[in-house]
């Protein structure tokens, strides 16, 4: 008995997987699901982003062509009053992450790190920035200007 | 060029010899025929479970934070928020329980088949050490969740260790990292649990298996002599056992998910505080006798258990007497352990 | 079992089992034991206010309250509500700051964002609460010293406050500052701050009712913060549910509490509400109210309930008329001294509602203002005790007292009534309405006793005519009249006397007789009294 079984060589072992394909498949499947579960465990869930309204300005508060600076979630944000309405931009330069300044007289955004320039519509005018300033969704209601802000939960895990 | 040739060009390995040794040690390892019975071949179970503990333990360290403020919350986070967190934690928790049960079964089997006799005394002692290490693993492990049970078990446990003669006070200070149970205690237990104990356990397991291989599995009387190869028969048995245990642990995690308990409150000891079930016999015993007597007796018992392969022939010279002595002592220990455990379980 | 083949089978089976269990794990979700709150971004001006207030220790708890509010999450801070212009009645310059703030924001400020709610409120009777108190309240202006009304009448009636800048109302009466919690506004206890007491025991009626009982039992399980504008996810209604909230039957949520009220049932006479309040005819308002009931109740039950309650309102009108008539008779005979009180040529009270200085006048007052309202509101909101013992019983009792007073002071009609031995005299005091049977289902027994309908000739014909007259006057809908007619034509079955009594009835009667028989001998004890 023992001798016969010990003759099952490596080739036979592999043949188990081709001949007994279901067995190999089952084992492989079990291993695959196991690994999938472990990977899901290791990679934190990408939470569906929830947004809520946030009041940023009143009509008439910002003169036409000017901007107001706010801090949202620790980061600066600019509300600009344009002819066709209000726009809200992140104040983070799209080049390498420095904070832009609003230059009142020139009605433009200027980044001191590498001299990037954005116009009052957030578009790149000159310098290294590859993209316009990141816009936020804006809503106007009964004389008030709202932006949509990502909901952040207070806690050690976010 | 084949991979094999590429490697051989760089490393001076005698490939034939390599294959031979591999076949001899692994594939063709001769296993006595009695091990075809499921009853005899489950010695690998504690090893499989330890493997699970290792993997899930490492995965848990990705999210666990060992500070008194964050320990409980990070365990809650793993259990409730992290995807599959309850599963990983559940396997780890249930795995620890099953590992201890598997060890107890293994020890019982080894003892009653008298496999500790000469020449296997050293391996028996290594086994006892492995058992003690596993209990230490369990103790440090459940202290990490920092719930009420953790905190008070740590307090009581370290207080008991203080009573050990000679070294007790130093062990106490070493384990607590000071006079009180504090952040130091938690981080020490953590380091011991994940850094200090695993390598020692792995080393001793390797030694245990090495010695087992060198000496061969002990063969109980009354079975036909003869051997079969490790591969494929025993190998498949181990695979079945692994699959079965993983399924069992997963199922247990789903049906009885790991709980959290109350966060540690140093000001309030819960009215019905108990350690984990595997410490019940000692816990119950220590309630029956004065503390010093109790610690001394437990120490004596541990020494006796460790050196039993030498004590037994020293007490009984004649073979039949020895066997009877072995069975009697083993039965007494088993019955009293079960009785004490049962007693502690039912008492509120 | 030992063969390799068997082992391979076992491996296969266990692999599959493992896969299944690992997939099940993916579907399991652990119950959360704690939740975290969203981060609040505080804008610049609000930060300034908070810093200074915390430093000076002024109203610091309000900051915490504000932080818990929905306003805080959305960036609506201090100045958004408290901003004032020079000359505002509540303008106040914060010391050591550049801020000119309004000390008391009112609906004009709330309307900056909540225009709809303020508009709805302005069209409701909440908005005229102060009008009623100031201009139509001799209880306060004549009967009581003014100081006593400051922390009394005014506290509740201020919900309709007329502000110096033209705003009307008090939004924070129900969702109080600075948390402005919608959960708070939805709780019956909030309405019960004012809708309470002997003259309109609404919270008491509610808590007595089955709706209130369900509330008391299950309220802790309900999610009081459900999304606004959604149908209410509770298994029993609250005040807000019936009078304001959206329903799964198509009603939208509203701040106009008058939109579903088809009776002025607090008035001396119950009259159908006019279109101005709520912008709907009383028939539309009644439909809206029934739409709320239909969420839980069958149409037949709800319709019959409302019809009965409506008839109670109409019946009350007759009782009040009788009260007035008796008061007039007593006055004609000179038994009552005062009539109206006047000042500078103007009447400032209306008699006999507000006679005040004689006991019979107080009884008449209560017949309208207290017992009369309890009778009507109890009937409409399922407060049986308020309909009966705090309602009709005391209404009748007051009438008896008025008539008795007349009898003792030489009013012949009163004396005649008092001396009459006619068992029907109590229900002959005024015309009767009635509806056959019971809202809650037929009974073989309930109407079997010796009742007015047995003693009075042509009872049902007369009653039917009275209801018909009211319907023809436009006080009941066509649908209601149809229902009434159906019940009237089926009245034998509704009244239930045609049904057999259950066999156990005789046993009950026997034993009840024994109860009484035993009672009397039981109290015949030979005891000792002190002389």
What does this structure look like?
The complex is a heterotrimer of chains A (158), B (348) and C (531). Chain A is α+β, with helices and mostly antiparallel strands and 158 residues long. Chain A has two domains: 10-42; 51-150, Rieske Iron-sulfur Protein (3-layer Sandwich). Chain A has helices spanning 2-6, 10-19, 21-42; strands at 51-58, 67-72, 75-82, 85-90, 101-103, 108-111, 116-119, 124-126, 135-136, 138-141, 144-150. In chain A, strands 2-3-4-9 form a four-stranded antiparallel β-sheet, with no helix packed on it. In chain A, strands 5-6-7-8 form a four-stranded antiparallel β-sheet, with no helix packed on it. A three-stranded antiparallel β-sheet of chain A has the order 1-11-10, with no helix packed on it. Chain B has 348 residues and is mainly alpha-helical. Chain B has a domain at 40-219 and 229-277: Cytochrome Bc1 Complex, Chain C. In chain B, α5 (85-112) crosses α10 and α6 runs antiparallel to α9. The longest helix of chain B has 33 residues, at 183-215. Chain B is globular. The mean pLDDT of chain B is 90. Among the domains of chain C are: 60-103, no CATH class; 109-271, no CATH class; 441-525, no CATH class. The model of chain C has no long low-confidence stretch (mean pLDDT 93). In chain C, the strands form three sheets. A two-stranded antiparallel sheet of chain C has the order 1-2. In chain C, a hairpin with a 6-residue loop joins β3 (263-264) and β4. With 531 residues, chain C is mostly helical. The chains are: A alpha+beta (158), B mainly alpha (348), C mainly alpha (531). The interface between B and C is medium-sized, with 25 and 21 residues.
Give average pLDDT of chain A, whole number. Answer: 85
Number of helices of chain A: 3
The CATH topology of the largest domain in chain A comes to Rieske Iron-sulfur Protein
Query: Rg of chain C, please?
Result: 31 Å
* First-residue to last-residue Cα separation of chain C: 105 Å
Helix content of chain C: 40-55%
Strand numbers in spatial order across the main sheet of chain A: 2-3-4-9
CATH superfamily of the largest domain in chain A: Rieske [2Fe-2S] iron-sulphur domain
Distance between the termini of chain A: 62 Å
The percent range for strand residues of chain A is 25-35%
**Secondary-structure element order of chain A, N to C:** HHHEEEEEEEEEEE
The domain tally of chain A reads 2
